[in-house]
Amino acid sequence: SNAPVKVAVTGAAGQIGYSLLFRLASGSLLGPDTPIQLQLLEITPALKALEGVVMELDDCAFSTLAGVEIGDDPNTIFDGVNLALLVGARPRGPGMERGDLLEANGAIFTAQGRALNAVAADDVRVGVTGNPANTNALIAMTNAPDIPSERFSALTRLDHNRAISQLAAKTGAKVTDIKKMSIWGNHSATQYPDIFHAEVGGKNAAEVVDDQAWIENDFIPTVAKRGAAIIDARGSSSAASAASATIDAARDWLQGTPDGDWVSMAVKSDGSYGVPEGLIYSYPVTTKDGSWEIVQGLEIDDFSRAKMDATAAELADERDAVKGLGLI
Ligand code: NAI
């Protein structure tokens, strides 16, 4: 039988964790034949709640779950992990400014980057879901100098999936008929969901839609502000969909994108599409055997250019802020 794949999840007692752990344990990531060992990190006051979640994992009797370890020390929990899903983060509290938020998260992702650098498996891949995801990934990456930088990514797959769903609803197509969606930039309200290269049933999506006003005034804001709409409706932030996207992103990273399609992932910019080098910027990427490549050669018109530049500028600001705090 196969050796278990060790998957770390941070913030495991949180909302996303409550959905994510059960999907991971039941084989959604690597299928029914690959056992998973879960390594769960929480802050000390949340460990008791996490013990309860582990009791529930036990009670599912998942055949793919090889074992579970919990703790509050990243140097123990990240030991030998092949995949680290960094979900836990400090939420913005009352009266907290953006700088305070970056600083609080900076402390978390500095420590976790160092711990991964010291103890993770040689093949580790690190996916950051906790917000501000792109900049948290930048901090972790910078603090893990021995791990190749292309092993870090931040989650924009939820935005990607939201965009597919909106385009499917608009065109009456099935989600499986929609290919080549692109999310550019930051996982924030400045992100740019782009359908100009997308396809609906093999035809260019923007031509099928043929409604620039819908793209500008409906599609883009609906996708970019979907998180806030869910908070308004549900009273708490998206969790099951974020967990599902976290799995989709990790699965496709490890197992590859199908021919004729791509996914969106925030990865270290190499300067492609005029994005400043070194930012963790969401691009359309193809993946194969645990590696990704930015899709090249897409034509970018003035409308798209302005949106791609605006979200890059926001990421450059965040980078400068954490640099100013000495976190990178
Ligand atoms: P939550 O507040 O329910 O859970 C977060 C958990 O992280 C808590 O249990 C907390 O104790 C833990 N935590 C805090 N600091 C930690 C540390 N240093 N080490 C380990 N665990 C720590 O939040 P939820 O709803 O599960 O969301 C988690 C994060 O994901 C948030 O930052 C949220 O903004 C982000 N998110 C990102 C999305 C994306 O698309 N990239 C979508 C939705 C949420």
UniProtKB/TrEMBL annotation:
Binding positions for substrate per the UniProt entry: 92, 98, 131, 162
Record field: catalytic activity: (S)-malate + NAD(+) = oxaloacetate + NADH + H(+)
Domain Lactate/malate dehydrogenase C-terminal: 156-321
Keywords on record: NAD, Oxidoreductase, Tricarboxylic acid cycle
Residues engaged in binding NAD(+): 11-17, 105, 112, 129-131
Oxidoreductase listed as a keyword: yes
GO biological process, one term: tricarboxylic acid cycle
Enzyme Commission number(s) from the entry: 1.1.1.37
Catalytic residue positions: 187 (proton acceptor)
Domain Lactate/malate dehydrogenase N-terminal: 5-148
UniProt GO molecular function: L-malate dehydrogenase (NAD+) activity
Enzyme class: oxidoreductase
InterPro entries given in the database record: L-lactate/malate_DH (IPR001557), Lactate/malate_DH_C (IPR022383), Lactate/malate_DH_N (IPR001236), Lactate_DH/Glyco_Ohase_4_C (IPR015955), Malate_DH_AS (IPR001252), Malate_DH_type2 (IPR010945), NAD(P)-bd_dom_sf (IPR036291)
Keyword Oxidoreductase: yes
Role played: Catalyzes the reversible oxidation of malate to oxaloacetate.
Similarity field: Belongs to the LDH/MDH superfamily. MDH type 2 family.
HAMAP family in UniProt: Malate_dehydrog_2
Protein name: Malate dehydrogenase
